[in-house]
Design goal:
Layout: E1 5-11, E2 26-27, E3 30-31, H1 32-40, E4 47-51, E5 67-70, H2 78-88, E6 93-98, H3 106-114, E7 121-126, E8 129-130, E9 134-138, H4 141-150, E10 165-168, H5 170-176, H6 189-203
Parallel strand pairs: 1-4, 1-6, 4-5, 7-10
Antiparallel strand pairs: 2-3, 6-9, 7-8, 7-9
Helix pairs in contact: 2-4
Length: about 200
């Protein structure tokens, strides 16, 4: 249990490529948001879900003791949502992720938090992409995110140049998550179909 760290789940995205709210897609008996929260509760005693203002379906009993906060406006982007999440957590350190990681492992999340040392954030690079929504952050990153917002910058990736970030190369990241499936996210119907196939294969 990462007793001195929180977890943040961003669930307020538009899901444009998917065509329906990704948080409520089902993998087996659970929705993606349920799976994500339940997995993180294995390692974190404080989980905050940042949801869109009008998404009543996120308020599910299955989310257990997770706290739910709302974006100030719909679809304001992950940078604003992450800042709100960081300020709502009980701990200074937090693992932050999107709600569309069907193979997320709590062990990989807590391992990233353990690497933070004196850095502002620990962000893995997998398949040549920075995994900004599968990363560990200090609460003070919210200040940098606010400055980005004030300057009109909405890209979460711009945060990396404004903080002291530890970028974890894929070879090192795979020491904590060997198949890197914890980073696999669902953006399209094809991704969803693959996630279901992986889940079925794991149950055999």
């Amino acid at each position: 249990m990462a007793a001195r760290a929180s977890a943040i789940v961003l669930a307020g995205g538009r899901s444009a490529r998917m065509g329906q709210p990704k948080a409520l897609l089902r993998i087996g008996a659970s929705t993606l948001i349920e799976r994500t929260v339940c997995e993180l509760l294995r390692a974190f005693n404080d989980v905050v879900v940042v949801a869109a203002p009008d998404t009543e379906a996120i308020e599910l009993p299955a989310l257990g003791r997770a706290a739910i906060i709302r974006d100030s406006e719909a679809y304001s982007g992950p940078a604003d949502a992450l800042a709100r999440g960081l300020r709502a957590t009980r701990h200074e350190l937090a693992f932050a992720c999107s709600c569309d990681l069907p193979m997320l492992r709590a062990e990989a999340a807590s391992w990233l938090v353990s690497l933070i040392d004196d850095f502002d954030a620990v962000i893995p690079r997998v398949a040549s992409n920075l995994q900004l929504l599968h990363a560990a952050y200090r609460r003070r990153c919210a200040d940098a995110l606010d400055l980005m917002h004030a300057s009109g910058e909405r890209r979460l990736g711009a945060l990396v140049d404004r903080i002291n970030a530890c970028i974890v190369p894929e070879t090192e990241y795979r020491l904590g998550d060997p198949d890197a499936l914890s980073c696999f996210n669902i953006n399209t119907p094809d991704d969803y179909a693959r996630a279901i196939q992986i889940q079925h294969a794991a149950q055999r």
